Amino acid sequence: MDVVAPILAICIIGLSVVLKIWLSSPQNIGKLGEKRVASKLDWLPKEYITLNDILLPTNYGTTQIDHIVVSPYGIFVIETKNYKGWIFGHENSEEWKQSLLGKKRFWGWTSEQHKLRNPIRQNAAHVRAVKAILKEIGDFAIIPIVVFSNSAELKITTPNHIVINWCDLRSAIKLYKYRCISEEDVQRIASKISSANIITEGSRETHANNIQTVLYKKNIAIANGICPKCGSKLVERHGKYGGFLGCSNYPQCKFTQKL
Asked: Does one domain contain both 139 and 64?
């Protein structure tokens, strides 16, 4: 008994450490956020149909959409971001920034800075995919929404887009009260999207690998002074927020990258 107790304690500690590492991975943090948002959407009235974790085909591969809510008041395409801390960004910028408190030093707290892809642009790709799937049955009102965790303090400039915290999601959806989609079309839309959803084995893993490949090619292009969107040269410019790289093909191409 004296030997078993320490071994059991070590096993429990080891499992706790493994579980903590597993839960703290970006992929699992994101999935936990999606589940939280899905549970909030479940409380919408029955006239709203919620579709979660939808993988749709596109001309360049696939795109994964966290949540789609189909209703008589429009189709809500929702991108979930399970981030905490301060979130800085502008709706037109290529990247946003996450700022976290780091370690406490004798002179005060340090901070950690992380970049994230502009979620508005990310969600715009999702909207295009949904429109492409539905083009055979009609042109419907689509409302993109980006939702961050309640632990995120949003210090962003997005006058033309909806970017909110989880706690405000249902109320933001219910602000839309004009019936623009018939009950019959609501069912047809939900059925069409569900039918297009890719559920074959390994499809999610392939999608994730494709994303990493695209990001790698983008970073290589930027490192070589080439615009990853149109292939033109990148030139160094200066704005009120500091230096940045901009496409020489502006205004035809509006790609920018902070220095």
From this structure: yes
